[in-house]
Amino acid sequence: AERGRRGWRRMAESLPEHDRILQEIESTDTACVGPTLSAGRGGRGFMEKLDACIRNHDREIEKMCNFHHQGFVDAITELLKVRADAEKLKVQVTDTNRRLQDAGKEVIAQTEEIIRCRVQQRNITTVVEKLQLCLPVLEMYSKLKEQMSVKRYYSALKTMEQLENLYLPRVSQYRFCQIMIENLPKLREEIKEISMSDLKDFLESIRKHSDRIGETAMKQVSQPNRMIRPCRNRILESKNEITLKRTFEDEDEHEEEVLTAQDLVDFSPVYRCLHIYSVLGDGEIFENYYRKQRRKQARLVLQPQSSMHETVEGYRRYFSQIVGFFVVEDHILHVTQGLVTRTYTDELWNMALSKIIAVLRTHSSYCNDPDLVLELKNLIVVFADTLQGYGFPVNRLFDLLFEIRDQYNETLLKKWSGLFRDIFEADNYSPIPVANEEEYRIVISKFPFQDSELDKQSFPKKLPMSQSVPQIYMQVKEFIYASLKFSESLHRSSTEIDDMLRKSTNLLLTRTLSSCLQNLIKKPHIGLTELVQIIINTTHLEQACKYLEDFISNITNISQLTVHTARLYGLSTFKDARHAAEGEIYTKLNQKIDEFIQIADYDWTMSESDGRASGYLMDLINFLRSTFQVFTHLPGKVAQTACMSACQHLSMSLMQMLLDSELKQISMGAIQQFNLDVIQCELFASSEPVPGFQGDTLQLAFIDLRQLLDLFMVWDWSTYLADYGQATSKYLRVNPSTALTLLEKMKDSSKKNNIFAQFRKNDRDKQKLIETVVKQLRSLVNGMSQHA
């Protein structure tokens, strides 16, 4: 074909243009005629050539038809022959068809019935197959609804997961499945809301009842017949909803069943909520929410009531709430995975511990009752032991107890200060009388008194100390017991407890008892007899200090020979009190002497003496004599010092009476009367009112008065002036200024006596002598001042 086309092309090149186009029309495909006709459309010659070509082909077609016409005629003839047979055949076929149709009507009906049944059967089969796919879905969904109705939310979530992953994909084309798929997220949200609501109810219940949980846990620790540490294997398990399963009733201990903290609370809401949120992929959200809410509750629990310090119940409720809170957290820590971590609980506990210590410091400072402080200490110990049993560090709480111990000691000191004051107020400050052996043993059972000389005496007899001594001694022992109570359960060694007891006892002796004794001694109503008895009492209390040390050693089982054992400072306490009492004795003696001196009523212008000592002075001496008889029970030096002090004060008071600036004149008769009084004083001093003075030591207290009065009585001015300044002078103790003052008073008295001045030559000579002596004394006084 390709070679033919190339031949036509070579021929077309040699033919005229119109012939070439006609050849292309005849030789090309029908689809290419259009472009060829368009190329030859431009001339008339072409159309003529085309018509000629057409006529040629028509003649060829006619020749061909004429050639085949006979065959066509023969065929028509044959066809006409079989026409009649065809008609017969048609009739037969129609008849056969009619008969066949009549015969097949029943078959057709049965066939249609069969077809319909087959369709129904196929539809039923299809329905059964589809129902078999849908029924598990419906059953699971029904199960889901049932689980929701009975609040089995965790199982419901598992059912939802199976529906979504296994069942619903098989029948996802059905509309009810789409409805289910749309409802599942809503059910999940409903489950989350319900579980969160249960959790909130749980948290609220725990907040309200944490004090009872803590109370039960602390009760377990405080019971001596139980283990100190709580058993974690039974912590807080229950199968019911959140409630306290039982209530605490104030029944008899033997009839009341002691509930454990593990029997009180149902934690299933926490487990459910945790599992639900974990299944839903929101476990972290739940953890954050739970921890946030518990932190808020922790802050509420740690906030005390303003009146907590007033009663022990306030402290007990505060501690119970905190213990209950951390018992719950410890349980959550050990039964859940990740909801609460050890780091979280440690952080929460450290925060709480700082707050607890600050609260206890503040509120315990308001406690003035040692019994309340002691109960607070016991609560803190139980509180610390309970939480330590759950693994929380409590060393800082025991450090706090040492601070509270100091406060406890202060409250004890205040309480015992009142007890000591009451004892001193009730004391009669007289020796204890004992009528028989039984009374004597009762006294020595309270106070370690030993006196071999007194034991030899027969009953009735008197013990030297007053009733306050055994009472004070017993109260000191009671104080030691009270101080020991605080030291118990502090997990400290016997040495430390011994040291604490000795330090607190030292404070009692050196501060409280010493202060009470000092105040007692200074009280106005305490007289000399009472002061003497106080000195005797302090002496015996001082001797009893060694028995107190033995008492402490027996309690703590620590020998006093231990290097680090502290000693009691009672010796210095009682010595100081005794010295203060001695000083008060001296002061009161002097005051009493001043009272007698104040009632002295001398007639300083009398011409001659009465011939006997003044009444006030005799009363004073009798008082001193009776007073010093009471001093026989005092230590010798104390009585001697008191007697010497009294005589010296009396001598000075009499001297001041003579030299008083308001006294302007003194007669010789008054000097003589005054001399009689001084003689009585000297006689009293020489009578040895207090034994132990050597020679005339006590009389020397009046030596200044004696030499001054002798000088004026003898009128020995020449000797005085001649021997002045010499160690052997007869009037060595007479000061020129003193003599001058007294002499001037006598001079003024002589001037006013006109009779002596006018009619008696001796008196005039004496007046001149006085003036001369006055001048000489003034020169001596001036010389002394210049020398000074």
UniProtKB/TrEMBL annotation:
Function (record text): Component of the exocyst complex involved in the docking of exocytic vesicles with fusion sites on the plasma membrane.
Family the entry assigns: Belongs to the SEC15 family.
Entry keyword set: Exocytosis, Transport
Organism: Malurus cyaneus samueli
Domain spans labelled Exocyst complex subunit EXOC6/Sec15 C-terminal: 397-745
Location of the Exocyst complex component EXOC6/Sec15 N-terminal domain: 49-218
Superkingdom as given in the UniProt entry: Eukaryota
One GO term of the biological process aspect: Golgi to plasma membrane transport
Record's protein name: Exocyst complex component
Gene Ontology CC: exocyst; plasma membrane
Listed Pfam families: EXOC6_Sec15_N, Sec15_C
